[in-house]
Amino acid sequence: MTFKRGKLMRTQSPQSMRVLALAIIALSTAACSKEGEDARRPGKALDDGIARVEKQSDAVLADVKRGAAATERAASDAALEVKQAALEMRERVGNDLSDAGIVTTVKARLAAETMLTDAHINVDSTRGRLVLRGTVVDLGSIERARQIALAAPGVVVVDNQLVVQSKS
């Protein structure tokens, strides 16, 4: 065969063309079977690679899920700790405010009592436990101060440490 400006020129006999065609078919068949075996090797390698990647991604996903669960538990524990600390702080502040309110109320009521105008009374409160310290003019004033203190809202107990002032 010869080529002339992109065209095939027939210079071979039909018999040689048949032999050439048979040779091409034989080579193609051999190449196809060889190509099939070789094609399976890269395909199998690709399948094996994909399987390994899937297995690794499953392992990574399991690790991420375990990490997420651990993070969720840690966040939940931290939230509970913060909540508990806030409740304790609120209780402390609330008690301080309640105690301040109790002290203010008791002092105002003691100051309004005419029987106690000459008394010098200090009032302290811790969680509703009231302590009265100071001096009064007589025993009746000690009892009256105790009654006024007990009647105030929020007072749980009164530790009356008042004493009668000696007359000099």
Report what the structure shows.
67% of the residues lie in helices and 17% in strands. The protein has a domain at 100-164: GMP Synthetase, Chain A, domain 3 (2-Layer Sandwich). It contains 2 helices and 5 strands, in the order ββαββαβ. It has helices at 14-112, 139-151, and strands at 2-4, 7-9, 120-126, 129-136, 157-164. It is an alpha+beta fold and 168 residues long. The longest helix has 99 residues, at 14-112. The strands form 2 sheets. Strands 3-4-5 form a 3-stranded mixed β-sheet. It has a two-stranded antiparallel ribbon with strand order 1-2.
Topology:
Blueprint: E1 2-4, E2 7-9, H1 14-112, E3 120-126, E4 129-136, H2 139-151, E5 157-164
InterPro entries: BON_dom (IPR007055), Transpt-assoc_nodulatn_dom_bac (IPR014004)
Signal peptide: 1-33
Keywords: Signal
Descriptive terms for the model:
67% helix, alpha+beta, 5 strands, 168 residues, single chain, two-stranded antiparallel sheet, GMP Synthetase, Chain A, domain 3, 3-stranded mixed beta sheet
